[in-house]
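Bug: token stream looks shifted between consecutive jobs. Job 1:
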Amino acid sequence: MFCLVCRATNDWVLPILYHSIRFTTTAQVDIFIKAHDVPVDRLASRLLLVRNLYFGRTPITQGDLTYTSPWPVDTIARMLWMCRFIETLTILYLDMEKWHKFEHAIPATLTTLVMGPIHGTFSAEALTHRPRITYFTSCHTPLSHEEFMSTITYPTMRKLRKILPHLKKSSTLESLEIVITGPAIYSDTSYNILQKQIPQVTDDKRISLTQVVTHDWVSIPYAEFQTTRREYVFQAEHLCDLHPETAQGEKTAA
């Protein structure tokens, strides 16, 4: 009877203990994997209970998993491979050149991924097991156009979040303009959503939101190019009107 009670308690406690695991140091990673990567089913099978993994510093613990320190990349890749039912993965301060070493180990069950800062090139399509990621957060990292497009068009992606430094760090920046482009049938929705959400996250008056209804975003920089040209031509013509002798002299010299 006592054994049955212990087993029932164990079955109830283990999922709680293993659901969410945080690592801030290399030593923690090494100790954990050595304790579980063994030919003992009852220990190795506990990794199947892990759902939420966190690597990197926290607001209160610095640790040594920092951007400039050597991470135990192979050990972490092994852990990701063994934790086959991870749903949420947070990796902070990983060297931007190391992420690709994890791509083959990310399990198909992953739905939420948080990375940064400067996490390097990310492509959900490059993940071997094609996880059903629905929510991707990129922290303090510029995304190329290719990365942005491949992320928002990934079949299961539902939410993309960018965490950026606050503008108050800049004393010279006068404005940050967010421009939504495209046909009205598409851009209206994006514009209306952002119009409601931006005031909820910041009251910085330098941030503005603009909608440009166009079928080709190139029309925006091209129109600005044309405006600059017209302004110059206008100034040149005005100068000729004020100093006709200068213009006549130039024609004579020609």
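Job 2, same session, no restart:
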Amino acid sequence: MAANAAFFSHTSNSTFEGFQINVTQGASPLTIDSALKILHRNRALEATHTSKTAAGAAKCKPGTRVKAIEDITRWASESDEIPSDNSSPDELVLWFRGPAGAGKTCIMREVTRVLHEKGILLGDYFFSTRVPGLDDEAPFVATIVSHIITVIPALQRLVLETIRLNPDIFEQSLEFQFKKLISHHATSIPSQPPTPRILVIDGFDECRSIKERAHLLQIIHSLVIPPHSFRVIIASRPELDIRTGFDRSPLKPISKILRLEDYEASGEIYQYLSDEFTRIRETHPAKQSIPEEWPGHSTLHTLTHKSSGVYIYPSVVVKYVDNPRRHPVELLRHVLGALSKVPSGRPFAELDALYRVVLSPPDIDIALMKRLLHIVIKITEDTKASQP
């Protein structure tokens, strides 16, 4: 009987029903590979297109930025095809450059979605100065490696074994991490069937350190030359150090450059403004007193022209006018009155004037506010000076 009892020693939730015995084998606790723990601890999940940050981020309005998205995804699709003679195509890196607030990140999120659906997305990384931990290089390699071993399972065992042998690897330089975790295993990437090879990097200029950006450009160059066969899409503002990097070897001969400002956006901005003002007209608490034809085609054309193709301008106008505590007709009139004094065709001057409007509401006495602030500062300084 003791022997029979031993049979049930590792079971739980055992029940006896008549002559039928139902046994549920006790489940062992889920164990996670120590190397995988290290990798996950050092990656930046919020930098990816599946993160909570991405879920709540602004997206391209349907039907907008179509040509830019098509050009980028076409380049990616063509680049993902390995030439039959095993020679490398000339364009291994695509730099998509554009001014601040022009909508680059919205475009890149849509590009990432399309490439993922096509099955050619190797991974993605969205730098950001607004999300903690996404404005430096530290998590970059760990995040990309996490992508790679997911889409190329053949590398997982090799990469994790390397991490086990080097548990402090993510405290080393980016170059060392890249060499040990990617370069050493590049020849183990199967060529058949074709594997995803496109890496998307957005907000590259939002990596704050110029020195770190230089490191990353070196890593990016290493990713696209033999023995690797990856292709990289980078989106950023045209900062001097980034322009310099793409204007000389080794990146210049292997890079294609697309400029966002070369894509006509006036029609899309006009439609965006029209749709947003229609929404305000229909949903604002003061909707009963908003004229049906407001704001009118002339005003829409004026705002579109002053935007100069930069999406941040109409976006700020809409956010300012869409104030439930103020009448939108009055707010828009105030915007147009202030902006009429600014010469057209100068997007940054227009934007500066717009911000002055936003930060200086018409019912605020600026002179009085300055005096009050001076008094507050003076009292604070006197209080600190009187303390022992």
